[in-house]
Design goal:
Elements lengths: L2 H9 L4 H13 L1 E7 L4 H14 L4 E5 L7 E6 L2 H8 L5 E4 L6 H8 L13 E4 L8 E8 L4 E6 L7 E5 L3 E5 L8
Antiparallel strand pairs: 1-3, 1-4, 2-3, 5-6, 5-9, 6-7, 7-8
Helix pairs in contact: 3-4
Length: 180
């Protein structure tokens, strides 16, 4: 996109014409992948975002996927804008050739409930509430209510305790298969 065209769009009055200009810019954008040092994705994303703001580059979004180490996704009008924003940043290795489709990113955007991963006899650690830090074994899983019933391993008396599934973290899988 040329500078003259951007200047024209900036001088248009706010309202319907401005909304159409933004839609046109976003429809022309692509998603590019920047390879980074593992563990430095958030730092790189913040630096790219700040450079895009200060240099007024047409970068529309910067995303770090929680389950994908070493990569940052950047939505921009062209690859050269991504290169401009990421050049010289310490932990950036390279911009991967090609573009990523929104369908490729869907699996990183959709959050899978924790309770879907849990089964009876799995070992978990309680990560919230008054029992925080205690290890337990799952006795029952209620996927509808998003709850799990636990037997605490570190308690003197074994009694079932029901907690929200968001308060547990999977430590290990159960050894025997679930009997039905």
């Amino acid at each position: 996109m040329g500078l003259a065209k951007e200047a024209e769009e900036e001088t248009q009055p706010q309202g319907e014409a401005s909304g159409k200009a933004v839609e046109a810019k976003l429809s022309e954008s692509q998603i590019y992948v920047v390879k980074t040092t593992s563990g430095q994705e958030a730092n790189v994303a913040n630096l790219i975002y700040m450079r895009a703001l200060t240099n007024k580059l047409p970068i529309y979004a910067v995303m770090v996927a929680e389950g994908l180490k070493g990569y940052v996704f950047v939505e921009a009008a062209g690859p050269h804008f991504v290169d401009d924003a990421s050049s010289g940043i310490k932990h950036v290795k390279q911009r991967l050739p090609g573009v990523a489709s929104p369908a490729d990113l869907e699996r990183y955007l959709l959050v899978k409930p924790v309770v879907e991963e849990l089964n009876v006899d799995d070992m978990v650690e309680v990560v919230g509430g008054p029992l925080k830090g205690m290890k337990a074994k799952i006795v029952k899983v209620d996927k509808v209510k998003n709850e799990v019933t636990l037997e605490l391993l570190e308690a003197a008396v074994t009694m079932p305790i029901t907690v929200n599934a968001d308060y547990v973290r999977l430590v290990g899988r159960g050894r025997r298969e679930r009997e039905e």
